[in-house]
Amino acid sequence: MANQILPYIRVEGIAEYSSKISALAKNKKIFIICDQNSLQCVKYLQSNINELSEAPIFKVGLGEENKTLIVSQKIWDFLLQNNATRSDLIVNVGGGMITDLGGFVASVYKRGISYLNIPTSLLGMIDASIGGKTGINYHHYKNQIGTFSDPKLAICDPHLLNSLPKKELLSGFAEALKHGLVFNAKYWQLCTSKPINQLPISEIITDSIKIKSHIVSIDPYEKKERKLLNLGHTIGHSLESLLLEKKTPTLHGFAVANGIVMESFIASEIKLLSRACFKIIKSSIYKIYQPISIDKSDIPFLLEFMKKDKKNSFKEINFTLLERIGKGKIDVNLSEGIVQEKLEKFFSIG
Ligand code: GLY
After folding, report:
1. Closest to 222 measured CA to CA, from 231, 230, 211, 210
2. Beta carbon of 207 within 6 Å of any ligand 1 atom
3. Gap from CA of 229 to ligand 1 centroid (Å)
4. Residue 57 CA, ligand 1 centroid: distance in Å
């Protein structure tokens, strides 16, 4: 896990990586995991890389609800039926759901079979496929079962984003904003300097990969610094889950972006972050993402969800907050009462 030389590369077009995949695939049986959305990318890869052309494909159903143990079992059955051995290779092609699920399946099949990630979404390229976290959802909670296991290689090819719907691009972009906020103010400025369609997306991918892989290389198992990457996610995950419960689901990044605004509000209320910085963050994020508004009566649900999160102890909620733009602070533990009070204030005055 978490090699010194991290296996994540941003490339420009298939010519740059077809030989790398061919070399890794040599003399191995290859198995591809994808979904309907990434099938076109699989066909493209198969027609350009000989070693992949005949590979059996397991197509997972669309959506996060398929990131389950039952689907994992189906993939293990598929691997067994095709006589996959530990020296063979799995190639995950898709968004974060596919790389999380496929990475998990690979990391425990016969105690671990090598895998490659070829993310086809911005979220996959700059977050999910980097850092060796794999996982599935369990009992309505995200990523409760999983492993730390690095792919042999994660290949991030911006050309594969061409057919990605704009809302998916925006969803992934929230993670880039997070990278800037917790680690690099200049990068945040770049990301918020223009509308997303005018930004140099290849540069964004490269910079985010650099920031995330740097953080992960110092703390692969999330004991300290890696917690910086949780900014916006403590509240973001609970919002995501609330909206799912209400049958008005939102995309992960939209919930995270709103989580960043709310957590920045809390940081300014406890005098960690200046009011001026909070205002900049709020207005920059609301220029890109719709504010999620919830009823005051929903706040207890958010709190219950946060308390059950695997990162939290019984009484307090563990946050990563901001001290300023470009500098996150981990392990800010706040009581449930304080979080409730601040969220009520946020939803009454914003
Ligand atoms: N997505 C946050 C992390 O990889 O730690």
Report:
1. 230
2. no
3. 6
4. 27
pLDDT band at 4 (very low <50, low <70, confident <90, very high): very low
Dihedral over Cα of 128, 130, 133, 134: its sign: positive
What confidence score (pLDDT) does residue 64 get? Answer: 87
Asked if domains 8-161 and 167-349 share a fold, the reply is: no
- Residue bearing the CA closest to ligand 1, atom 4: 131
- Whose structure tokens read 């290949």? 155
Instruction: Choose among 103, 56, 117, 107: nearest CA to 86.
Output: 107
For the entire predicted model, the pTM comes to 0.92
Ligand 1 midpoint to CA 228 (Å): 9
Sequence-ordered list of residues with C-beta below 8 angstroms from that of 246, at least 6 positions apart, any chain: none
Planar angle of CA 316, 301, 277, nearest 5 degrees: 65
CATH topology of domain 167-349: Dehydroquinate synthase-like, alpha domain (1.20.1090)
- Residue of the CA atom closest to atom 3 of ligand 1: 229
Q: What is the CATH number of domain 8-161?
A: 3.40.50.1970
How many whole angstroms separate alpha carbon 291 and alpha carbon 285?
9
343, 320, 342: which is closest to 332 by C-alpha? 320
Instruction: Express each pLDDT in 6-60 by its tens digit.
Output: 577 777 778 888 999 999 999 999 999 999 999 999 999 999 999 999 999 999 9
Model confidence over 79-112: pLDDT tens digits?
Answer: 999 999 999 999 999 999 999 999 999 999 999 9
